[in-house]
Amino acid sequence: MDANEKEVRKKRQREVSLVGEAVEKRIMQILAQDNKIREECIIGHGPAQTVRAETFVLKDFERDESVELPHLILSVKYIRGTGEEVYMYMDADIVIYHKLSRRVVCVISSKKSFRERGAQSAYLSLQIVILNSTIQAIHTSRQSGGLF
What we know:
alpha+beta, 8 strands, 36% helix, 148 residues, 3 helices, 4-stranded mixed sheet, single chain
């Protein structure tokens, strides 16, 4: 791959990231329009895929409110053939935490394309079954024309 191709790929990745961030922000704004969700929940971005600490801080996207959560709440533990323990994190672009019940009630995975969403659906559903979780998983993607 020559330098020009690399630059084109980098530019495309930046554009995709900006679109993804805008979509996530819009989804959070839509959720926050519901007074009950706004009052009872913290809506924020999920942990990075490379969480090294025992916990992560879920910060509300609008308010100065946050909660510290164990990183394992959104992960599945695998044991490799070598015996090494590895954690695979859910694709949790948006996490909704219910303050009264003190639990994550919804994970939203926002994808730019239907192809990406389709590939993630089975994976995320399997993770929730493995976790024996009551977390609601929602997959979103933009359709042509910018609609969800």
